[in-house]
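We emphasize that the prediction below concerns an isolated chain of 349 residues; any contacts that depend on oligomerization or on bound cofactors are therefore not represented. The input was used exactly as deposited, without trimming of termini.
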Amino acid sequence: MHYRTLGGTGIHVSSLCLGAMMFGKWGNPDHAESIGIIHTALDAGVNIIDTADVYSGGESEVIVGKAIAGRRDDVILATKVSSPMGPGPNERGASRRWIVRACEESLRRLGTDHIDLYQVHRPDPATDLDDTLGALSDLVRAGKIRYAGSSTFAPSAIVQAQWTAERRQRERFVCEQPPYSLLSRGVEADVLPTCEAYRMGVLAWSPLAGGWLSGRWRRDAPGLSSHRTRTMPFRQTSAHYDLTVPGNQAKLDAATELARIAGEAGLTLIQLALAFVTSHPAVSAAIIGPRTAEHLHSQLSAADIVLEPAVLDRIDRIVAPGTDLNPDDAGYNAAVLSDPARRRRAAAR
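Result of the prediction step, given as a C-alpha cell string:
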C-alpha cells in the first residue's frame, strides 16, 4: 500500500480510502460481515475510512464505530454533514445550528470523541459560507474535529471558501471530495488544479463510476442493472443508468473499450480504473466502496499498480481529459443552472 500526504496537513493516507456507504441497509445490512470487511481493509494497510451521517440513516457510522473500537488511533476517520437526516427543514444543510448538532450525533454513533476530517457533503446555498466555516472552526477549537473539508464543490466555491477563511480568520477546507473516474473526468479541467493551487488533499469518490467500471457493464452483457438504484434513495433516477440516455450509451461504449485496454495490459478493469484515478498527482486517495469481501479484494489488488504512459495515452483517446461522458455524473449542478429563476432577468411589470 502506498501512502500520500493529505494536501498540506502532513497526514499520510493510504492511496485507497475505504468508503463506508455500502455498509448498512443501503448495501450490506449484516453488521458482522461489514465489520469484517473493514478489518480486512485495515489489515491490508488502508488507514483512512470515509462515511457520512446520511448513509443508511446513520447506520454506516454505527458500523464503522464498532469496527474501529480498539483501533481508533490507527484510523484517519472522515465523515460528512449537510444531507437530510429527518423530515424537519432544519435537519440538514450547513448552518451553525445543524452542523453543531449533527457533529455531536456523528460522534455518538461513531463511538469516538473526535473526527479527523469533517466534510460538508454538498454546498448549501441557503447558508452564508462564513457561518459554515465559523461553526467548523469552533468545532476544531473544541477538539471535536481535527480538520474540515468540502465535497463536490464547484471550483468557484472552493476558491470562495479559501478566501473567506483567510479574510475572516477561519479554519480552511484542507480537502475536497469530487467525483472522478475514467468516465467522469470533468474535474481534471478545474477542480483538481484548484485543489493543487491551495494545497488541498483530494479524496476521489466513485472511481468505479457507480459500478460502470466493475467489468459488468459492456456491450455484450445481458440484463444490465445497478444494485444502487434499488437500495439508495438519491440514486433512484434514470440519469445515471438508463441506457436510453445518450451519455450512458457513450459510457457503455467507453467501458467496453477500456475493458479491452485493461485486458491487454494484464489488468482487470477495476484495477485499471483505480490505478488511473490514483495516478493523478492531485489525488490523495481513491475512495473504494465494497459491499462484499469479494468486492474489497478485487479493489485492494489495485493499490500498487502504476500505469504505463502508453496505457494512459490510449485512455485519453477513448475519454478525452476533462470530459464527463454523462453531465449528470458531475455530482452537483449549481442552482444558477438548474433553477431558471436564477439565470433569467424577471419580466418588467
